[in-house]
Design a protein that fits this description.
Blueprint: H1 3-21, H2 28-35, H3 39-45, H4 49-75, H5 79-94, H6 103-111, H7 116-139, H8 146-164, H9 168-184
Helix pairs in contact: 1-2, 1-4, 4-5, 4-7, 5-7, 5-8, 5-9, 6-7, 7-8, 8-9
Length: 185
């Protein structure tokens, strides 16, 4: 089997296990079992669990941001509606049966104090999301200071939805985002 195919199988298994159970509770043997890749080959692909964790976070970041961008771009051409579409996308994500909150916040909570690479991956993900929102705010002709407020609304909705187990925080954050935009003019 090709290396890329094996890496995909391992990363698929790692993502399901790490996101579902947490980084620290999942061992390489569990990933081996879930992926069907021998332990020897697994370690050839990812020499350490830390390497695998970072590969998982990198892939999740790319996929998460690409899906958000795709969904928002498909909604409308109206710049303010695109901002609100971010919260609509969050609502859909929160309704997924395996939703467990933000993988980056979860990873940072588990390992951020002990692993600078994990902390940096979380920071980079959040900075990229904030930058994306900043672009939407600029395209809508709104003041830049709204970016941080809209970012905090989204982040708060993600955390609250994970804890509460329901999608309502996305709708509430959307309403607050609309009010902020209306107040800004």
């Amino acid at each position: 089997m090709e290396t890329a195919t094996l890496e995909t199988k391992v990363l698929d298994a790692a993502e399901a296990l790490f996101y579902g159970r947490g980084l620290q509770t999942v061992g390489m043997d569990q990933i081996r079992s879930a992926s069907g890749v021998s332990l020897k080959r697994l370690y050839q692909l990812f020499p350490s669990k830390d390497t695998l964790v970072l590969a998982y976070l990198h892939r999740r970041d790319e996929r998460w941001r690409a899906e958000l961008t795709r969904q928002v771009a498909a909604v409308t051409e109206a710049p303010r509606e695109r901002i609100l579409a971010v919260y609509d996308w969050l609502d859909r994500w929160f309704r997924e049966p395996d939703f467990r909150g933000c993988a980056f916040v979860n990873s940072f909570g588990e390992l951020g104090a002990a692993s600078e690479p994990v902390a940096e991956a979380a920071r980079a993900h959040k900075a990229a999301f904030r930058d994306y929102l900043s672009g939407l705010v600029a395209a809508a002709g709104l003041p830049e200071h709204l970016t941080d407020q809209l970012f905090l609304l989204a982040e708060g909705a993600i955390t609250t939805a994970a804890v509460s187990g329901g999608p309502e925080p996305a709708r509430q954050a959307r309403e607050a985002a609309r009010a902020l935009m209306d107040a800004a003019g």
